[in-house]
């Protein structure tokens, strides 16, 4: 599982659950990108997750494998 944190939002991609259909990359290409070598999705490096929070949430909702979790990150210590 890979985790990306940006401005209070945390995205988990459960790669073992990802089927590689790419719905998330279609819904939110600024954050999700299909890795054609592994046929799994990955987060775009330095993706502005907070700016695309609505699209990220929609991508998580529309993932047929429920492989994306979107959480509110804890406040920094
Ligand atoms: S929508 Fe879900 S199953 Fe499809 S590529 Fe994205 S994370 Fe993987």
Automatic annotation (TrEMBL):
Keywords: Electron transport, Iron, Iron-sulfur, Metal-binding, Transport. The keyword Metal-binding applies. GO terms for molecular function: electron transfer activity; iron ion binding; iron-sulfur cluster binding. It comes from the Bacteria. Residues 9-37 form the 4Fe-4S ferredoxin-type domain. PROSITE patterns: 4FE4S_FER_2. The keyword Transport applies. Gene3D superfamilies: 3.30.70.20. Ferredoxins are iron-sulfur proteins that transfer electrons in a wide variety of metabolic reactions. This is Ferredoxin. It comes from Phyllobacterium phragmitis.
């Amino acid at each position: 599982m890979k985790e990306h944190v940006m401005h209070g939002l945390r995205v988990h991609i459960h790669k073992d659950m990802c089927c590689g259909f790419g719905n998330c990359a279609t819904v939110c290409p600024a954050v999700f990108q299909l890795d054609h070598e592994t046929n799994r999705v990955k987060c775009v490096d330095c993706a502005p997750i907070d700016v695309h929070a609505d699209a990220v949430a929609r991508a998580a909702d529309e993932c047929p494998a429920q492989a994306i979790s979107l959480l509110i990150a804890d406040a920094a210590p």
